[in-house]
Amino acid sequence: MSTFSALSAVLVIGLITYLSRAGLILFLAGRELSSTVVRALQNVGPAVMSALVVSILAGDEGMDGLDLPELAAISLAVFVGWKTRNLILTLVVGMLTLWLVAALLTNV
Amino acid sequence: MGVAISESAMPGWVGWLSSSIIWAGAAQFATVSLAGSVSWLTLVATAAIINSRHVMYSAATASRFADQPRWFRWVGPYLLIDQVFAMTAAVPDLSGRRFRRYYVAIGLFFWVGWHICVSLGMAAGSVVPESWRLGTAPAIMFAGFVVLGIRRWPGAVAAVVAATVCALTLGMPNRLGLLVGAIAGVAAGAMADTFAARADAG
């Protein structure tokens, strides 16, 4: 890949990224949103991010990208997050579960 | 990420600059790893699709920027990554100067931390062994954000439907399943909200 095409792609993607974030903030900032819209938007975060979890775990291999240690780690992390509302603890428990289950599977 | 840049078909310095210019982990990762193997247009389109979730972040965060000065409305969006969005949503009561300080503090924290990590990763190459499975850490982090971000049960419906639909559509090109799952989740959440409102009224 030439320097020019690499740099131009990065610049264009950067611009698209900025516009995707700035557009509605600049456009909507002066207005009030209806309570229905506000309520619907509260679900945007959980929806996008939980889809992102699946997408990251799967990688580019589709369903084959998911394995047991990952599923165990996510399940336990979700449970800990729900019970404790503590993000750091959630991450620590999730990673520990991941390593533990992976180690158990390789040694059995 | 640093490792991915050092293995990319792009010149190293362009890859390094992409941290600041793109400033969106997932899109940057896709750009750097796809470079050289797909056309210029495919590269840009893929990143745009991955980033389309930011439009929803922008819509969801817009009301928080309503009382902010003009310069902040222009600069703020640049910092609006997944983590900043999640942490902003976690403190719905902050406004005015306190919101601005909080937002800039977390934004800069991630920005500086990311640039240091990418530089270290590029310098060190793949020193961290594959068996540490650090690639799963972001997924666990996002799962935590999802759980902590859910205030009412329709939010849980949105999250479960989004994850399920995304898993079912993983075969779609350009990771389009991510977007399809998210939209299905938002729609399901909205339906659940309508149902909840009716139940409250009745």
Overview of the molecule:
The complex is a heterodimer of chains A (108) and B (202). Chain A is mainly alpha-helical and 108 residues long. Chain A folds into 2 domains: 1-31; 32-107, no CATH class. Chain A contains 5 helices and no strands. Chain B is globular, with a radius of gyration of 19 Å. The model of chain B has no long low-confidence stretch (mean pLDDT 84). At the A-B interface, α1, α2, α3, α4 and α5 of A face α2, α3, α4, α5 and α7 of B.
Please describe the topology of this protein.
The complex is a heterodimer of chains A (108) and B (202).
Chain A: H1 3-28, H2 35-42, H3 44-58, H4 68-84, H5 87-107
Helix pairs in contact in A: 4-5
Chain B: H1 2-7, H2 12-22, H3 25-34, H4 40-51, H5 53-61, H6 70-75, H7 82-89, H8 96-124, H9 137-149, H10 153-168, H11 176-201
Strand content of chain B: under 5%
Mean of residue pLDDT values of chain A: 85
Mind telling me the C-alpha Rg of chain A? 20 Å
* Separate helix tally of chain A: 5
What is the subunit arrangement here? heterodimer
Q: Largest interface, with Cβ-Cβ < 8 Å? A: A-B, 72 and 95 residues
Q: How many strands of chain A? A: 0
Structural class of chain B: mainly alpha
Ends of chain B: how far apart? 52 Å
Helix content of chain A: over 70%
